Description:
Bound molecules: adenosine monophosphate, zinc ion, fe (iii) ion
Helix content: 25-40%
Number of strands: 9
Strand content: 15-25%
Oligomer: single chain
Number of helices: 10
Order of helices and strands: EHEHEEHHHHEHEHEHEHE
Shape: globular
Structural class: alpha/beta
Amino acid sequence: MTSPRIDLHTHSTASDGTLTPAELVRAAADAGLDVVAITDHDTTAGWAPAVAALPTGLSLVRGAELSCCWHGVEPALSLHLLAYLFDPESPELVAELARVRIARETRAERMVALLRADGVEVSWPQVLAGAAGGTVGRPHIAAALIRAGLVADTAEAFAPQWLGERYRLPKDDIDVFRAVESVRAAGGVPVFAHPRASRRGPIVPDELIADLAAAGLAGLEADHEDQSPAEQAHARGLAAELGLLVTGSSDFHGTHKTVRLGAFTTAPQAYERILDEAGGVTPVATG
Ligand code: AMP
Ligand code: ZN
Ligand code: FE
Ligand code: FE
């Protein structure tokens, strides 16, 4: 029997992916995956529609990618925490996620205002409509820039002169230590997403990762397209040193990115460890 194919990081239209949760699970099965995690930014809204459409033979790991910040440097660094199999009704997490989603909306509206002040023809109602009720993010503003013919694709929209720097505003994220503790308290398993992805911006020092491990962090995402082979190796080495599990994932976003489902995968042993540590909800499988 061949090893199961496990992809633990994907986005749907519940945040800034372009496939609906139902389309996402069907695409995951078509891509030959055995396990897929739905990890939309700061929301669990995609869980129910993904479960309802789950194809036979595919296991769904319900999760989220939490927008976090670390205040150990000035200005604070933003980072992403994947959270798996947590109780979606945990009052603390529900409140934090709702707060972040509202803050994201305010921030995106202000970014659109900055663009408009410079004469860029994008409209906030259209950006909001493009998010279609999902968590709003820069990819939705990027889509508006593409529609306006100002950039060719999402990657170009993230250049420094656009959303990468010039028009980028900070988000009101969750303190990362609070996030790790809240996820664990809700029975979830926290994994640091793309921790060494220097091409996305400044990265956190290894000392912070050691402190997070002591606070309950379970793992590091090593294999990710935004991390070079050297960065992936560094993450693996650090995980081994700290006793953390290691994941690999596509971070699929539909047509907002070029990466395909299953482009990077997680070893069955690491997945087993996540299951062993989880106590919020279980994976879902039919048939
Ligand atoms: P936000 O959460 O609003 O700050 O937007 C960040 C999101 O945009 C992340 O989920 C990334 O997947 C996506 N993103 C960041 N950089 C790029 C890029 N260069 N090209 C395409 N998508 C990107
Ligand atoms: Zn995203
Ligand atoms: Fe991320
Ligand atoms: Fe992501």
